[in-house]
Structures
1.
Amino acid sequence: MTEEELTGSSYLIVDDDDFSRELLVSVLSHLGCNTVYCAPDSETAIGLARQYKPDFVLLDIYMPEVDGWTFLSQLRKTMPSAVVIMITGSGKTADFRKSMTEAVDGFCIKPVSPSVLHRALIGTRLHQQSQTA
């Protein structure tokens, strides 16, 4: 995946925390990624996903009402090929393990630095491309 592909991709951030969403938007902007949609909850997120079909989804695990794992199954019905990176502030080993067994492409712990997110985005896209080749 080239830098041009990364910057030309679209992103959906799903996180109930305003500060976390703003931080991820800032990190993506720092990486040159400008097509970014944000949702504070699963209902808004599924609407944005259907409307814009983002290439990447950055999904918080712990949200009120519908958590990230539940939303993930809804998202996969709408966008089975989207690259999904779970984002959490908890750092629980169980979350990491679950991300390895679910239909998840990557896992990051908040706060996410530009270099970590950059590696996660490129790594997950390359992995997905190798699975379809």
2.
Amino acid sequence: MFKKLPILLSMTFILLTFTACNREDDIEEIFTGKTWYMNGATINGLRLNSDVANFYTNAGEGAYYITFSSSTFNGELSDGNTFAGTWSADGKNQTISLRFTTTPNADTTFDQQLRSILTSIRGYSSGADFLQLKQDGSNIIYFGNTRSKVIN
């Protein structure tokens, strides 16, 4: 029995190594048919806590979202500042490309910062209830699968 234990452990290790290398995100599950609601941002490495209040106002209730179909996306920054385009993603490398056909107007500094990140997105991270669209490690927009509670 003890002679077979090292062989058994070696085979288990090899099996785990090969299965870990083949992880690839299910792009359809993450994006297609989903609406993601913005709930925060990091600009130049700083979390915009005070600006995030925009997401929790009555004016922000119908805004700050992005919806993906099989090949297109649309969304809205602050009220009435819509955007749209086409998208593609690579689940193995967690990269995404957004090609805008309609770029949002940006009436506020906050919207200008969000637009700057959205128009140069390179990657994403995701889980069951969150999505992060990343320009780089210090510029990220955070999304949730439900809208945060509106504060009056």
3.
Amino acid sequence: MSLLIKAVCLWDIKKIIKNMKDYLLILKTEGNVWTDLSPEQLQKHIENGGAYIGNLIKEGILKNANPIDKGSRLITESNGVLRDGPFNESKEVVAGYFHIVAKDIDEAVAIAKANPIFGDIPTKIEVHPMMAIQPA
């Protein structure tokens, strides 16, 4: 591929990305895929999840993603007093996040719906549009 063609392709990609918006997908599960699935189910989960993530990377959709580890803390403020404590006990836990780009909220929802975790463990995915902050 010539340098000119590479430059034009890069320009086209940047043009397409400018029309995209950032979204934060927050995965909430009941239970823990790492401990609740059998070894065979976990292996299938890893394979399916890896393929899903690989496809998002290949398509230039995924900016970042990570699972969330145990030990999160909740900071609250009431009457000027900050409190630091563990999350309230709940079956639902924040399991991870995906930072993606999509043309609109509907496309972001479709990307979230395609996540194979839905077939493995009870899951909810929150789709949040991220606000662009312009430099001063």
4.
Amino acid sequence: MIFDASSFLFSFISDIKFKNRGIIYYSVWTEGVVMLKSELNSKNKETTKPINPPFVFRDPDSPKKIYGSACNLQELAEILPYIPYFSIEYHLYRVESDDTISSDLGLWIRYIVGLNSLSDEIEKLGASVEGLELKDELVNIINSYSLQL
């Protein structure tokens, strides 16, 4: 996979650390990325390439360990079978310290890939299924959507 400077910038921005009560949290700044993407793309429409920051599957206990990344739905369908289920669970559905629900993958699919219905389906799946069953169902859903494109 080839990254240009803007993809590198966005993958870096998505891993900014936040400290809360002595605990470091990694956060995906999806809305900020979308706004920055829009701003960069509007500067010079003739020479600016579309920016698609990759989604990166990390180890929840060791954020520097990366299991895979995807820049689009087809790449996501290709790598998902090789991603450990616990990384998928972490990026699909988790309760944060302030009791909010976080779905990094759902946000990436909604704002970067632009598929709201797929994002809704994935967020519902994450709230209702766990473990290997979650991984299997997610692989099936992503494969069915990527075949439609």
